[in-house]
Specification:
There is one protein chain. Helices cover 47% and strands 9% of the residues. The chain has seven helices and seven strands. 23% of the residues are buried.
């Protein structure tokens, strides 16, 4: 659940976005009245959708009036607490939970509130590693945790035993990785499509992975996260229906040709 401060800022962003898109929609309608402008109008609509996606995603990650401004610098948890990001706070606590013990029970959510079950007898085994997808800084150092931001060649460093056990990746440079050393995936930002989500899952859930891979989607209640997640799922359903329909046709043709 987001704080009152976050909800107020997101409400302001939503109202500005609604007014901005109403104006832009009028421009698109006018452009489509001219047949030669249809392509430009469609491209304009895509750009507007992406602009909304990036700006609102940024506001949900850390709520501030100017979504393009750099995040403030915080030295202590005391400085961070009054203006903290709920999503970043929950993400950090989830990381600390899973890094505490490999046998720790999974985090649970009750009406949006995370619950962190403990262990009666800790195993003292701490080998789990976490992969976070985020387009935002995570403030993990405030919670006493070290992390690595993916850069060229960084995966080799991440696999060294005593290196930080949290790797943060983004849409830039996060494709085609083999990170089976990770067994916990946290999707901090909502992705544009389920295909992108499956690609991140596959970076850890693939051969020679020997552990159960836990995947956590952090969705802020009553925010664009929910809407974007529903859109991504709908796009996946449409894709699967299209593929299955084509496969059904191909199978039917094969059966007919074999008669």
């Amino acid at each position: 659940m987001l704080t009152e401060r976050e909800n107020e800022i997101l409400k302001d962003h939503a109202e500005m976005a609604r007014a901005w898109y109403t104006d832009c929609a009028c421009c698109i309608i006018q452009a489509k009245e001219n047949i030669t402008s249809v392509l430009s109008a469609n491209e304009m609509g895509i750009l507007q959708t992406k602009k909304f996606y990036y700006e609102y995603r940024s506001a949900v990650s850390y709520a501030q009036e100017d979504t393009e401004a750099q995040l403030p610098e915080f030295q202590t948890l005391g400085d961070w607490e009054p203006v903290k990001s709920t999503k970043m706070d929950v993400c950090a606590k989830i990381c600390k939970h899973y890094l505490s013990d490999d046998n720790i029970p999974d985090v649970e959510f009750n009406e949006g509130v995370p619950i962190f079950p403990g262990l009666e007898v800790p195993s003292q085994i701490m080998n789990s590693r976490i992969l976070i997808y985020s387009e935002s800084p995570m403030m993990l150092e405030l919670y006493g945790m070290k992390s690595l931001l993916l850069m060229e060649g960084m995966t080799l460093i991440y696999e060294i035993p005593n290196s930080p056990r949290i790797l943060i990746i983004s849409s830039i440079g996060g494709t085609g990785l083999n990170l089976t050393i990770c067994d916990v995936i946290i999707l901090f930002n909502q992705l544009w499509s389920s295909q992108e989500t499956h690609q991140i899952h596959g970076q850890a859930h693939r051969q020679p992975q020997k552990k159960v891979v836990k995947v956590i989607h952090l969705l802020a209640g009553e925010s664009s996260d929910i809407l974007l997640n529903q859109i991504a799922l709908q796009k996946e359903d449409m894709f699967n229906a299209f593929v299955n329909k084509d496969l059904g046709k191909a199978s039917s043709q094969m059966d007919s040709s074999s008669l």
